[in-house]
Structure formats: structure tokens, C-alpha cells
Amino acid sequence: MKEIITSETIKDFFRKDLFAGFVGIELIAAGEGRARAKLEIRNHHLNGLGLVHGGAIFALADLAFATAVNSRGRDAVAIHCSISYLKAVTDGFLFAEAEEVSCGPKIATYTIRITDASGELISCFEGMAFRKTDKRS
């Protein structure tokens, strides 16, 4: 049987992510190895060139990644992440959609697509996590 915690349980778990809240990231869906989050771009998300800072995009992707991998009922932590920035953005909304590629007993891998409101691809994020042995209670 698959280990799954409900969307509401995982949303409650990630409400404790104070950094994501501070940055303005909102978790909008979660469960069964997937997650979707959004970020409304504000002035404090912009870099010196007036473009969305790469760190803001990474933080959005990372929250979706962390939510997806932790949706299986076991604590998991990132062991490797990479991101490619494909298009510059200056305003609007960004969305991160995490999709599970594989989930083994110890290692799980995910692809996260970051898009703008029109669905255009902005960034691609790949994440690998270590799944701890103990189940979350």
C-alpha cells in the first residue's frame, strides 16, 4: 500500500515553513508525490536588473519539491537540486508544479516546472531527496 497523507495534512505541515511564507509563496495543491505552488511577483522579488531574482524562483520550486517528496508520509530532505533559468520575468504570477519521477525506499527524484500565468515555461528544476526510514506520526 502506498504511503500517502492527505492534502490538508501536508498543507498544515508546510504552513510551518516560515521562509516560504515570508517570501510570499502559497501552496495551492499537494498529495501523492505532487504539489503546486504559486508566487505573486512583487518589487522585493526583483534583482538589480528589474528581473525576478533567481533565488525567488528557486525558493518557489524548492517548496513544491519539498511538499511533493514529503507527501508520502515520511520525512525527506534534499540531497541534490539543479535549476535552469529559461526566460526572464518581471511581473505577474509564477507557478511551480512538482511531478514525481521515481520514489524508492531511500531516494526520490522530482521534476518541477516553473511557468508564468500563461503557461509559458520559465525554469526547470530537478530535485533528489533522501527519504528517512521512520514514518511521520
Describe this protein's structure.
This protein is an alpha+beta fold and 137 residues long. It has one domain (7-135): Thiol Ester Dehydrase, Chain A. The protein is 23% helix and 45% strand. It contains three helices and six strands; from the N terminus they run H-H-E-E-H-E-E-E-E. A six-stranded antiparallel beta sheet has the order 1-2-4-5-6-3. Strand 4 (93-103) and strand 5 (107-116) form a beta hairpin. It is globular. The chain starts with 6 loop residues before the first helix and ends with a strand.
Task: Give keywords.
single chain; about 140 residues; alpha+beta; Thiol Ester Dehydrase, Chain A; 6-stranded antiparallel β-sheet; 3 helices; 6 strands; globular
* Named CATH architecture: Roll
Total number of distinct structural domains: 1
Number of strands: 6
Share of helix among residues?
10-25%
How would a textbook summarize the main sheet?
6 strands, antiparallel
Mean pLDDT: 91
Gyration radius over CA: 15 Å
Q: Can you tell me the CATH topology?
A: Thiol Ester Dehydrase, Chain A
N- to C-terminal distance: 17 Å
Tally of individual helices: 3
Gross morphology? globular
Would you list the SSEs in sequence order as H and E?
HHEEHEEEE
Topology of helices and strands:
Elements: H1 7-14, H2 18-23, E1 25-31, E2 34-40, H3 54-70, E3 74-85, E4 93-103, E5 107-116, E6 121-135
Antiparallel strand pairs: 1-2, 2-4, 3-6, 4-5, 5-6
